[in-house]
Amino acid sequence: MRAAGTRRSAACALIVSIAFLPSPVAAQPGRTTVCQQVATNVGVRNPTTNQVIVILADASTPAKATLEVATRTPKGWMCAPAMSARVGRKGVRPLLDRRSGDDTTPAGVFPLGTMTAWDGQVFSFFGNGADPGVSAGTYRRVQAGDCFGATPNNVDYGHLVQRPKAQCHGDDEYLPSVTSAYVHAALISANMEPNVSGDAPDEIPYAAAIFLHRFRLDGNGNPVGTSGCVSLGLNNLIDVLVGIQPTTMFAIGEGKWLLANS
């Protein structure tokens, strides 16, 4: 995968919160929004979750999307106001149809991801900045030597390993160098540990990892598409990370597809 920009990016991810987001908004009587229906579908299949992060890709503009936080209430699922988001430069594609480097974001329903770093730390959030206050899992402060493997059919693919910057190259990504986009990020469990397809010979490399991270901007200051991650503006990103719950599920895709596959 590539981060939005000129060099290849090893990873991407996604997350949502309600702690500091605007209050959820109910649909008008007799009407159900796409977000509410997707959350309802996901909730039926995952009865322990009370929060669904719904990322709706724009079919007419591949890199654009909205992100809504759906919350289970006694009156049903309610969705907070939509936030502007970005997905892959070439849109979204079902995970099993996706391949590393194709500039799409995996479509599907996924839980919060968990990864084990080279030093043994198990984490679900990371960043070059200090922990903003997450509570759903451990936050890893990026350290020297943190290299994310994204070279398909290599043992390091989809794993955080230790390498000096000079040896973290090609498809792989040296996290300490990505100070803006990865000021804070979260993992989404699409082809993630413990069962990563693509870290052995002849396996299909669906995705090295998917993160939710900060927008990257073009020369005019406008957010751009990613190589497969989901991105948000900094303030929204922090709110989302802080509000994520351990059982949150992430639903990503175009509206019609998600309604049929959530």
Report on the structure:
By secondary structure, the protein is α+β, with helices and mostly antiparallel strands. It has a single domain (34-261), classed as L,D-transpeptidase catalytic domain-like (Beta Barrel), CATH 2.40.440. It has three helices and 17 strands. The protein has helices at 34-45, 234-243, 255-261; strands spanning 51-57, 64-73, 76-79, 83-86, 92-94, 105-111, 115-116, 122-123, 125-127, 139-141, 146-148, 160-162, 173-174, 185-188, 210-214, 230-232, 249-254. The strands form four sheets. Strands 1, 2, 3, 4, 5, 6 and 17 form a seven-stranded mixed β-sheet that branches. It has a five-stranded mixed β-sheet with strand order 10-9-14-15-16. A hairpin with a 5-residue loop joins strand 7 (115-116) and strand 8. The longest helix is centred in the first third of the chain and has 12 residues, at 34-45. It is globular, with a radius of gyration of 17 Å. The protein starts with 33 loop residues before the first helix and ends with a helix. Mean pLDDT is 89; it is low at 1-11 and 13-30.
